[in-house]
Write a structure and sequence with these properties.
Layout: H1 13-75, H2 82-104, H3 107-120, H4 122-142
């Protein structure tokens, strides 16, 4: 009986065992390098995403602040009705506080607070989600294709 040629290490079992160990070591090293590069890539992607979100967070804070300013300016038209003016001023002050809060806090803080609120009031979150979905569906439906003109006359 003749031994068939072995592509890994010839016919010598000791040489084959050493070659398998070397191969396993090479594969482990390659896997380790790949894992390190993957972690580096994930860290870079996370850093980029957080930077993007921080930029958008600043824009959102500015938008809320602009809305507060507009609301306060709109309230000035109710100088003859102090109760209504106070409502506008109070709402504008609340929006200014929200703007400052958005600007000061990190994304992790905002996420943690939203998660805590959702855990405390799941029904409120569910109702708000349903309402937002309903309003979004109405908006999408309203902004769809215009209906064909119908003058009421049939031929």
């Amino acid at each position: 009986m003749t031994a068939s040629p072995d592509p890994i290490g010839g016919t010598d079992p000791a040489a084959r065992s050493a070659d398998l160990k070397d191969l396993r070591h090479d594969v482990e090293d390659t896997a380790h390098v790949a894992a390190e590069r993957g972690r580096g890539f994930a860290a870079a992607a996370r850093k980029h995403a957080l930077s993007y979100v921080d930029d958008r967070k600043s824009e959102a804070a500015r938008s809320v602040s602009d809305l507060a300013r507009s609301l306060k300016d709109s309230g000035k038209t109710f100088d003859d009705r102090p109760n209504i003016r106070a409502f506008f001023d109070s709402a504008a002050e609340g929006l200014d506080d929200l703007s400052g809060s958005i600007e000061r806090r990190s994304l992790d803080d905002i996420y943690a607070e939203a998660e805590a609120y959702a855990r405390r009031s799941p029904v409120t979150v569910a109702v708000a989600t349903f309402a937002a979905g309903f309003l979004l569906a109405r908006f999408i439906k309203a902004s769809g294709q215009p209906e064909p003109y119908d003058d009421g006359f049939r031929a």
